[in-house]
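Reply to dn_fold:

You asked what the input looked like. This is it:
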Amino acid sequence: MPEPALNDYIARLGPVGLALQQVDDTTRRRVVETVRTAFEPYVQGADVRFDAACWLVTARAPSAAR
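and this is what came back:
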C-alpha cells in the first residue's frame, strides 16, 4: 500500500480500527502513532509491504424445492 495510506489503514481496519471507533481524537492519534512504529520495518520508500492472509468463505442455502 502507499505509505501515506498507512495511518488510515491502522485507524479504520481490523481490531484496532474497531476499538478506535470508541475513543476521542487525541487517543486515536496517540494509538495510531504508536501502532505505526510497529510498521516501520515494513515501510520501503513510498510503499508499505508486509505479508497478509485472509479467508474467503462462501455458502449457499439448501434448495427448498427438494
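Helices lie at 6-12, 14-20, 25-39.
Hope that clears it up.
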